Amino acid sequence: MFTGxxxxxxxxxxxRIVGFGARTLDGSExxxxxxxxxxxxxxxxxxxxxxxxxxxIRSMNEAIVVEGYMDVISAHEHGFTNVVASMGTAxxxxxxxxxxxxxxxxxK
Length: 108
Hints:
This protein is an alpha+beta fold and 108 residues long. Helix content is 26%, strand content 22%. The strands form two sheets. A three-stranded antiparallel beta sheet has the order 1-2-3, with no helix packed on it. Strands 4-5 form a two-stranded parallel ribbon. The mean pLDDT is 92.
């Protein structure tokens, strides 16, 4: 399924692998593939990178939500450690609920 693609682990907030994402390396379509939806992997509930960003989000009282995992990886490499991604889906009520449990105020 992910042959010829850069494969990325998708982890939950407890740092457990729950799925994989894969980006094409040769420009073929689709550009991104994810593990199919399961009870364990639900894109509408998982914020990519939360396992890394949790501590920074809580200490800074701020989270930055971006679109994809490559955005999170790049942001973290440049010192923006409070960044998470909705993995290409619209930000859902589940995503906002996760952030609301961590932050005093959540704005969309």
